[in-house]
């Protein structure tokens, strides 16, 4: 029976690949997609999400527009690690596929999350791959929503790797108070997929070429999106590869062995100007702190490529 999930996204290039995977894989039942400000503003993340679902022929999947700002701040804590629209920007504004003909639902993201989880007769998986503003706000409305969730799989954070600052990953840094609330909410299982793992699942141009040759809408779009990421990361690393962070989370839902995790205590710094947004992962064997997250430290790039080609080629 397909696994039911809700994706929460700030759709740029990597979110787009994750959305296509969740919508197309036969082992997954995508109930809806909620959008939030992050890679781009919420109007653009919503438009990009609609573009993706229209492009792959799944406009029937509801898109629900969410929060346009962090839950406890007037704006983002600081400056991004690349200039929007520059060659080092792996997202840009509008995705390079046609404008959508569909529109987002009248129901907002928070209302959709609360109503869907309250009405659930079987447990649902939450997969937030952007800032956690929507999820935190839904939990503030009703903390018992955690009881309707079998697992929350979060793309965010970093232990030895940061991107927006020397110590923080963007999704957590963009709304650290929201991330702190979600990590302490008491989910039955919380899996955190940080940069430490996603930077091990790098994809190169040879995979983009193989995706393009599939001749499917998803293959074509994935080749464009990942190619843009490779070009941007090549400006930084010169390696000819790029991480596609968010799709690692959706791939994990059908192939848990794609990542290796350790059950550890994790907290988010919301105070220090040097380390705000840092996910503080306590790896000490003698720690007595509550182990609240299954943290991924490894990911299998070859397995990810195989899953992408199989799912987008069908």
TrEMBL record:
Keyword entries, A-Z: Glycosidase, Hydrolase
Source domain of life: Bacteria
InterPro entries per record: I/U_nuclsd_hydro_CS, Inosine/uridine_hydrolase_dom, IUNH, Ribo_hydro-like
Pfam families: IU_nuc_hydro
Hydrolase in keyword set: yes
Hydrolase among keywords: yes
Location of the Inosine/uridine-preferring nucleoside hydrolase domain: 5-304
SUPFAM superfamilies noted in UniProt: Nucleoside hydrolase
Protein name: Ribosylpyrimidine nucleosidase
């Amino acid at each position: 029976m397909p696994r039911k999930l809700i994706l929460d996204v700030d759709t740029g290039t990597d979110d787009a690949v994750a959305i296509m995977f969740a919508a197309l894989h036969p082992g997954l039942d995508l109930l809806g997609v909620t959008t939030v400000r992050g890679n781009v503003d919420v109007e653009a993340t919503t438009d990009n999400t609609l573009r993706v679902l229209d492009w792959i022929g799944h406009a029937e999947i509801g898109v629900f527009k969410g929060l346009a700002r962090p839950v406890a701040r007037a704006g983002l804590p600081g400056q991004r690690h690349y200039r929007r629209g520059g060659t080092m920007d792996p997202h840009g504004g509008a995705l390079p596929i046609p404008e959508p003909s569909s529109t987002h639902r009248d129901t907002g993201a928070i209302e959709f999350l609360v109503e869907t989880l309250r009405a659930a007769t079987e447990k649902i998986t939450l997969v937030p791959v952007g800032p956690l503003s929507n999820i935190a706000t839904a939990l503030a409305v009703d903390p018992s929503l955690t009881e309707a969730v079998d697992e929350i799989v979060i793309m965010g954070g970093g232990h030895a790797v940061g991107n927006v600052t020397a110590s923080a990953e963007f999704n957590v840094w963009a709304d650290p108070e929201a991330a702190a609330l979600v990590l302490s909410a008491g989910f039955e299982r919380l899996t955190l997929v940080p940069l430490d793992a996603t930077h091990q699942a790098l994809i190169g141009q040879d995979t983009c070429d193989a995706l393009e040759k599939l001749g499917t809408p998803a293959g074509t779009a994935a080749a464009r999106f990942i190619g843009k990421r490779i070009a941007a990361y090549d400006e930084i690393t010169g390696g000819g590869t790029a991480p596609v962070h968010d799709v690692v989370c959706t791939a994990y839902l059908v192939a848990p062995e794609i990542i290796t995790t350790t059950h550890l205590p994790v907290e988010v710094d919301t105070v220090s100007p040097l380390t705000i947004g840092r996910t503080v992962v306590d790896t000490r064997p003698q720690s007595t702190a509550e182990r609240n997250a299954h943290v991924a430290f490894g990911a299998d790039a070859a397995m990810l490529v195989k899953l992408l080609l199989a799912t987008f080629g069908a």
